[in-house]
Amino acid sequence: MKKNIKILKKKLSNFNLKLKEECGVFGISNAKDASALTALGLHALQHRGQEGCGIVTFDGEKYYSEKRFGLVGDNFNNEKILNKLKGNFAIGHNRYSTTGENTLRNIQPFFADTNAGGIGVAHNGNLTNSLHLRKKLVEEGAIFYTTSDTETIVQLVAKSKRLKTIDKIVDAIFQIQGGYALVMLTQNSLIGVRDPFGIRPLVIGKLKDSYVLASETCALDIIGAKFIREVENGEIVLIENDELQSIKPFPPRKIRPCVFEYIYFSRPDSILNNKTAYEHRKNLGAQLAKENDTDADIIVPVPDSGNAAALGFAQHLGKKFELGLVRNHYVGRTFIEPSQKIRSLGVKLKLNANQSTIKNKKIILIDDSLVRGTTSHKIVKMLYDAGAKEVHVKIACPEIKFPDFYGVDTPTKKELLAANKSNDEICKYIGAKSLKFLSINGMYKAIGFDKRNENYPQLTDHYFTGDYPVKPIDDLGDNKITQLSLLSTASNN
Ligand code: AMP
User: Structural domain of residue 230, as residue ranges?
Assistant: First the structure.
């Protein structure tokens, strides 16, 4: 048994367990400048992934593909490249990966030839059973070219015995599990798919006769497309001959969007459930203020992640809002650098205390979330070094105690501060005078969902509750669910 587990662990580690992406996807049908519009859409979605980007187009005869490392603006703001991407249909992808293999091969969209014609696939999210599917596919003779879970979807589509591409896709999505939003390009259609719980976001827009699919509405705004609606959970939208057809292969169930899109991930101007992420975050801040028991001279946000929550907090209490920290906008997000050492360095490079506003002040410092505590730890010290009298930290979401498996980059449970330390211990670690997190019920109230009401739609909130809507059966992390699934897999072998 022990030997079995060892062998399986080794095999699975070759499949790059840590490849977790929080990417951005975009697609457009029947548009004259499809590649340029896709580049613009990806540019608006740049916050969802900065490691690489790619566009695949179709001109009625042939597919064209360009994939690059780095930012959209640095790669696709280039007429020569855009002109190479011929055709009126396009899909695009921004890639974010954590410790996964950073090779050109893993940059999307992926492309495959099937017996029903070519298919391009761009994927945001993470499959929770892709390693098991992959193992099965390999045993059956499939050859994998990348280490990404998205290739599993492509292989399943290619392998399906069904005749029509759309049926092959339905076949494939019945086998995959997890959080996913897919944008696909076939020879005569643009297709969008959202996972049965709607964990990852996908919206539909319209630009004249063209349909647009995107991770967020900010990608519709940039090209002047009108927001039509979200792709529903478990829905496939098939766009063919300028018509949109909705296919719902799964039994109906309530949507459970990822709460972290509301808290941190989506761009503030993107619409989630009828409100902008900015409004939701201000409401989270106002709710934090309702739960507040600390007096202070000024409210200071951690820029930019805490801006909206701090504004909501300050406005609710009628307190002074001050930019006590100044951000250097030419440094990427703190999490982007994979190693802890570089991450700490990143925080120092990114922010500086604005002495004039904070000297001798009692400060309430607000951020959207606390994960490893690296940011707060550095900033609190920075504020004290610059002369702050007291620094009280308030976090506009509850304690993150459980990792994510659906496409948001969170560290393992071991590294999640709130999973391992009490409030007092965390407060001591970050060096603050006091520390408070938003309550879970408060979070639901602020976002407009009601945790206590069974009839209300729920959120995917496992970060705080451990309630995983889809069992993460693949992961070999340090929680019980994964250990159990590893044992059962190993003993099945
Ligand atoms: P930490 O410094 O580890 O406590 O991380 C908290 C900071 O990282 C906050 O400022 C958040 O805005 C930001 N953050 C939270 N979740 C993520 C994520 N999944 N990817 C990148 N940054 C994040």
Answer: 23-254
